[in-house]
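Task: encode each sequence below as structure tokens.

Item 1
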Amino acid sequence: MPAATHPVKVPLHTSPLGIWGSLKAARQNVLLLIPEAATHAPMLSGTTGKRWHMVMAPEALRHILRDRVNDYPKSMVTKLILGPAIGESLFVAEGEHWMWQRRAAAPVFTHRNVAALAPVMSHAAERSSARIAASVGRGADMFAEMVTATFEVISDVTFSGGAGFDRASVHKAIETYIGQTAKVSLLDILGAPAWVPRPSRMVATTGIRDMKRVADTATDQRRADGAKPTPDLLDLLLKASDPTSQRQMTTAELRDNLLTFIVAGHETTALTLSWALYLCAFAPEIQAEARAEAQAVLADRAATVADIANLPLTRRIVDEALRMYPPAAFLSRTAQTADTLMGREVRPGDTVILPIYALHRHHALWDDPDAFNPARFADPRSIDRFAYLPFGDGPRICIGASFALQEAVIILATLLARFKFTRIPGRDPSPVMILTLRPEGGVWLQIEAA
């Protein structure tokens, strides 16, 4: 295998794309919309159907995400893509409707509650290890395996023991929906109003309707049966209320938020783990060091929440995977009021793009940004808070960030302690983003016992 100096990356463009080029790029890989210049410049602006601004400067990102968050709501395209599946849940809601849900849900994700869910993650790591053991001596798609493992976790911590919750059908419905509706349409590029139908999204929604029905049935059944001995996310949300208004979520609101957690909670962590394993295979010396760390802490058992503090390199590998391949690698907002960013005029209706992929590989912010170097996270305080945004920031920072990081460290440490992962010639993944940054072709690695 020819020696590669850097892990795989997206080939960012160096010439203007135009409307048709932008449409083609967006439907093939959203990150192809990012120019190479975005990894060097603080901000870029242009017009492709409508005015847009691409922001990479940490101070401007702080302004958008924290200081003036209400003036930069999620873009119409984001809502058009996700709304049919997750309704007006935390991820897409705005204003007061978002605020009361956030106030109600925030206590659900306290450190204590997230730590209490760790045994589910440890058990999933054990089951994943057993499946991987069957592939020792040959290659296996670790992306497919991580999707299986993390979906087990999220379904166990949302609808644990739900007799009416068909995991397979829900998972299939999610995959089908993303595949059919998540691609950008020409009308999105041109800035057509939300009421103009997007033919590419006018597809059969039977799977989504069935998924919502299954979730509603499971929620109603839990109301009748009462909470589990160890409360899961559904139990915690059923009890949750907005401390300001005392409002509680209806079955539909619970369902939309739980489906948001299911979609985001397994997909993003599976991606983080898949890319982390690829990076470990890319850098055998770092993998060996992480294996030694995990074996010293774990011996022959799965990792637990109590082990995380003793697995600093494993955590740094997760952080570096999130830097190089952030699942939410391309965010967009719509300016609501006139503003100025980096000395440039922003008008109401302008699209403001937050290209997290480019931010995390920006040459003014990171040393050798395309290199895999977990050591850069040895002192997190040395990193500008708004140069590293795998979970966003400000009031709308991902509510499940601590859950995802805990799960990723537990599963990754368990696997690295037990197996050696090696790249397969010609099978490196390609980073492609439609809704999230996925490894196209899977993450095929040779598996050996450690």
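Item 2
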Amino acid sequence: MPGMNTRPRRILLAVTGLTPQVVTETLYALACRAEAPWIPDEIHLITTTTGAENARLNLLLPDGWFHRLRADYRLPEIEFPVENIHILHDANGVWLDDIRTPEQNTLAADFITETLRRLTESSETELHVSIAGGRKTMGYYLGYALSLYGRPQDRLSHVLVSDPFETNRDFYYPTLYDHPIHSKRGDKEITVDARNARVDLADIPFVRLREGLPKELLKGDARFSQAVAAAQCVGRKLELVIDLPNRAVTASGEPVKLTPQNFTLLLWLARRRLAGQEAIHFTVYATNAAAAQEYLAVCREVLGKDSLEIERLEDTLKNGMDSGWFSPAKNRLHKALILALGENGAIPYLILQVGTRKAARFELGLEVEDIRMESEET
């Protein structure tokens, strides 16, 4: 109904190998044992071909352990179709049955990263990620991917199961009734009751790096190595390199795609900074004729004095430059920098506003030693 508060859609994501039990154990800990139950709306798995078949046969058949858990503890409907089991595959779409070679590790890292990116794409979701199952490398990649893409509402955990149930392939969750399963104590085979098992969830704190990632990596086709490199870029040495002949710009070693107007605006402000000129001043109430002529001179140099763009700019700025033109132009340049460098990485390269709104001055925030012009005397 309109006006009602709706909570985010809850998603449980786990990696599994030959032990799909981690799914029911984690679900039990979240939904049945917690003081504040967290019941997912849907469950997703990342696994190999053998892991997928194990999960299907043991969890998702009509009498599978996932359905038994829901029935025993009267849990609501949870979406967990076979389609939510995501099987690792190579570049040709061929499913992987194991992760052994360096190439397979790279494929697994990219697949896990892209799957998690996609599941965190909507702000209307809340993710709980379990790294209890699968190979150790899978858990590592999933935890690191969450560090790269995780949001404030997302959580990371590992399920803890008491002995001797932890390594028992017949144990799926503590039952509400007597459920004998066979186990070993030394050389002897014994029978234990699943209802006596203890299952706890260990929350794992993680560093959230999402805000520092370039916007392009938040949109799709995220490679693990690219995302890690982008996150590391936040701490790189500050350096703005403007290659005038090729109209190319790099910042902290990363290429920045700029439109002609973005390029000329950045070039103009960088030259002013290198020359030690004062910050540009104008308000909504006054224009700055000198600034307009300076900027137009840079545009003629870069774009050519007879270009249609120059004619349009000369007409727009014929009465001088004011904040009505400068602010949108500044915002477009900022958007391009953030797209390439991420929110945090772009901060040092943005145009600074000094002073109050009525007496605002604008300049490039970089220090002179952080700006380099290629193929141009400075």
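Check on item 2: The chain is about 40% helix and 20% strand. The mean pLDDT is 86.
End of task.
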